[in-house]
Design a protein that fits this description.
Blueprint: E1 2-6, E2 23-27, H1 31-34, E3 42-45, E4 60-63, H2 72-82, E5 87-91, H3 98-113, E6 117-121, E7 125-130, E8 133-138, E9 143-148, E10 152-159, E11 166-171, E12 180-181, E13 185-192, E14 195-200
Parallel strand pairs: 1-2, 1-5, 2-3, 3-4, 5-6
Antiparallel strand pairs: 6-7, 7-14, 8-13, 9-12, 9-14, 10-11, 10-13
Helix pairs in contact: 2-3
């Protein structure tokens, strides 16, 4: 089962025409920018960024207290896992407060720990959270970057990139694995340690 999660960041210029058949979750204020574009299956959050009296009556709603230990995005990812979603695309993770953007990267790690493959979408990049192997595609010259989300990662091997890496240890104090380039077509990376994979759109 696939799902889409909308957060209350920058709306972005992406198309929503390919969401048919996916379970659409809207976190709090994101409803302000998707309500005229797509009908969500679930609204979730403390609704401190939206007038709760204007929520649609025909959409399932989960309301949480404003004084809580988790962000609306974290609650939404946990709920997605409970509902059996295995592939989750997250929109609106960027463009807001810088601390919130940083925390949104952790949603990828949270999703992975709950058995989901998730990625963030912006107008410039897709960002995946990977633990072992990843195979994707990018046109020639597109930027491919790998960065640890934690102390360090071990890049075991890469294929289809301009600067191959084999047995490369990367710590978060000196990240040497960004700004690689796709050779065009399929590419492959194998890592040990939770890794953020950035793919230029």
């Amino acid at each position: 089962m696939t799902g889409s999660l909308f957060l209350n960041g920058a709306p972005g210029k992406y198309s929503l025409t390919d969401l048919a058949g996916t379970f659409v979750i809207c976190a709090d204020g994101a409803y302000n920018y998707i309500k005229d574009r797509i009908k969500p299956d679930l609204l979730i959050g403390d609704f401190d960024s939206i007038d709760p009296t204007n929520l649609p009556l025909d959409v399932e709603t989960l309301k949480f207290p404003s004084k809580k230990d988790y962000t609306d995005g974290q609650l939404a990812v946990q709920e997605a896992a409970k509902r059996g979603i295995k592939q989750l695309t997250i929109y609106g993770a960027f463009g807001g407060r810088i601390d919130q953007v940083f925390v949104n990267y952790s949603l990828l790690k949270l999703a992975s720990s709950l058995g989901m493959q998730a990625h963030l979408v912006s107008d410039e990049f897709w960002v995946y959270g990977i633990r072992d192997k990843f195979e994707g595609a990018a046109s020639v010259g597109k930027i491919i970057s790998l960065a640890p989300y934690g102390d360090s990662i071990h890049i075991i091997s890469t294929e289809g990139l301009a600067y191959p890496a084999h047995g490369l240890l990367v710590g978060n104090d000196l990240i040497t694995s960004i700004s690689n380039q796709a050779l065009g077509g399929r590419f492959f990376v194998q890592v040990d340690g939770f890794t953020l994979l950035f793919i230029e759109r």
